[in-house]
Amino acid sequence: MTEAFKVVRYELIANDRSGRRLLQFTLPGRDFETAEAFEAEGSIKREFTHGEWTATKVLAPHDTRVIIWQINTNEQDQVHGRGLHFPEVKRLWSSFLDEHAPMAGNA
Predict the structure, then answer these.
(1) pLDDT at residue 106 greater than cutoff 50
(2) Is the Cβ–Cβ distance between 74 and 85 less than 8 Å?
(3) What is the DSSP string of 20-61?
(4) Structure pTM?
(5) Distance of alpha carbon 38 from its chain centroid, rounded?
(6) What's the mean pLDDT in 90-94?
(7) How many Cβ atoms sit within 10 Å of the Cβ of residue 93?
(8) Distance in angstroms (rounded) separating the CA atoms of residues 12 and 47
(9) Which residues fall within 8 angstroms of residue 53, CB to CB, at 6 or more apart?
(10) Residue range 80-93: average pLDDT?
(11) How confident is the model at residue 21 (pLDDT cuts 50, 70, 90)?
(12) CA dihedral 23, 66, 40, 29 (to 10 degrees)
């Protein structure tokens, strides 16, 4: 991740009156990436224990799309009170979580 790149930032607000907020990111012009799509293309390999997703081997660690997906997954983990799937990407969050960055809008 040596080149600068732009991401679109979405702030999703729960409609269950809980006030929960979830930040999610994507590259301009792309939909949100999924674990299933990354597995199909060979960018990641997920491991399951008793049907629960427990670990992931990232096979394309420098792919910007994979990094954004990891950050999105961590954001979801935080909102739902789970441990982070990808604690090692936490150091990359600051470039995505700039409160002054333009936001695409609420979804």
Answers:
(1) no
(2) yes
(3) -EEEEEE-TT-PPP-HHHHHHHTSEEEEEETTEEEEEEES-T
(4) 0.76
(5) 13
(6) 63
(7) 13
(8) 28
(9) 35, 46, 47, 85
(10) 81
(11) confident
(12) 60
